[in-house]
């Protein structure tokens, strides 16, 4: 075999290997879009929680995912399935409900901040927002704050 043909064959194999690597790796890269840091939003959530008497006067109850929904949703087959995006989408939707029922300053900023966190589709096995228990506003905000702290612990290193 001539030197030129051997180089062409090696080049074709390398191209094929790189193409295969691209097809295998790229879908997993897209699926792992990092959730950005949100220190300012945590401070705003705390500020709103400190307006305790205003928050307690709101009788509205909000669908509230749990921290475990953010980290792991256990499917009936006992396979762990992370649902961070559907959890964040639920908090985003419910913040809009809270914005409608409250005049407390800062709620709109949190809602817009949650809108800017990159989200994508989770597994079809992740629960819809309406499946979560309805909780008082303060409990909703406490859970939101805890989840945002977890997000920061994972992505703000």
TrEMBL record:
Keywords: Signal. This is Interleukin. InterPro entries: 4_helix_cytokine-like_core. Residues 1-32 form the signal peptide. It comes from Albula goreensis.
């Amino acid at each position: 075999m001539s030197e030129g043909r051997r180089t062409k064959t090696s080049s074709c194999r390398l191209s094929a290997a790189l193409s295969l690597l691209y097809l295998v790796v790229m879908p997993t890269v897209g699926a792992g879009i990092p959730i950005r840091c949100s220190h300012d939003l945590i401070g705003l959530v705390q500020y709103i929680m400190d307006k305790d008497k205003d928050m307690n006067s709101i009788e509205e109850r909000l669908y509230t995912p749990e921290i475990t929904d953010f980290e792991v949703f256990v499917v009936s087959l006992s396979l762990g399935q992370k649902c961070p995006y559907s959890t964040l989408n639920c908090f985003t939707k419910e913040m809009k409900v809270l914005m409608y029922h409250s005049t407390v300053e800062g709620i709109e900023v949190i809602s817009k901040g949650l809108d800017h966190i990159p989200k994508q589709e989770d597994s079809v096995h992740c629960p819809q927002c309406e499946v979560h228990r309805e909780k008082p506003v303060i409990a909703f905000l406490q859970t939101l704050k805890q989840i945002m702290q977890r997000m920061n612990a994972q992505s703000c290193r």
